[in-house]
Amino acid sequence: MKTILYITVNSKPRRKSVSRTVSQMLVNELMAIHEDLELKELDLYEMSIPRLHYKYFESRNLLVNLEENNNLSRDEKKEVEKIIRLANEFKEADYYVIAAPMWNLLFPSPLKEYLDCVIQNDITVKISPKEVTGLLNDKKRKMIYVQSSGGPVPKVLNGKMNHGGTYIRDLFKFAGISDFYEINVDNTGFTLEEEQKAIERGKKDVQKLSKKI
After folding, report:
1. Contact at 8 Å (CB) between 198 and 101?
2. Contact at 8 Å (CB) between 128 and 164?
3. CA distance linking residue 70 with residue 26, whole number of Å
4. Cα(89)–Cα(91) distance, rounded to whole angstroms?
5. Contacts from 198-205 at CB under 8 Å and sequence distance 24+?
6. pTM greater than 0.85 (yes/no)
């Protein structure tokens, strides 16, 4: 059994979010094609994401040993346990679908907080005095980033004015995930008609991509 981790970061209800609507289409397609997939869904606006306080770490990205550390309160220990659980859950997955709107050239802040939790020493990366190496190349993984935006986003502006997909791609390529794909549902506009046209374009992209992966 393989796992698809479906991560959404949008405060809108699903029916009002273009990124969630199109990404759900993609998840449905993947699960229909790959019958052995188990779905795990994380709504980052509905869950509490730990803040990475310095006292949670023995050294850079190395979480404290809870059995030996008595300086943390019960609530703080629960936060560290949650960070470890999120990182392990991320590593166990085989497919990732991350859906987010473009906010201020990037994505909403809960996604960055979540990513900081899952990039942890001895789980998803290995930090030594000389180098940092990714640990997510131990099996074949595929990641798809689905982004929506109100206006048009030309591909030439990727990495210059549109940093979301570039950031996700670079971060996880470094961590060991080389199979990365994007669906950009841009120009969602201001009217329901414009939004529906954008969703239809996104649906076509979903159908093309799901056949490739």
Report:
1. no
2. no
3. 46
4. 5
5. 198/18, 198/148, 199/18, 199/21, 199/22, 202/18, 202/21, 202/22, 202/25, 202/146, 202/148, 203/22, 203/25, 205/22
6. yes
Can you state the angle between helices 18-33 and 192-212, rounded to 10 degrees?
A: 30
The Cα 38–Cα 177 span in angstroms is 20
pLDDT at 118 over 90: yes
Q: Write out the two tokens for 185.
A: 């549902």
Lowest mean pLDDT of 2-11, 50-59, 124-133, 165-174, name the range: 50-59
- CB neighbours of 178 closer than 8 A, spacing ≥ 6? 137
Q: Largest Cα–Cα distance of the chain, in whole Å? A: 59
Count Cβ neighbours within 10 Å for each residue of 20-51 and write b for 16 or more, e otherwise. Answer: bbbbbbbbebbbeeeeebeeeebebeeeebbe
122 DSSP 8-state letter: T
Instruction: Report pLDDT for 158.
Output: 59
Reported as a single tens digit per residue, the pLDDT across 73-94 is 889 889 989 999 999 999 999 9
CB 3 within 8 A of CB 40: yes
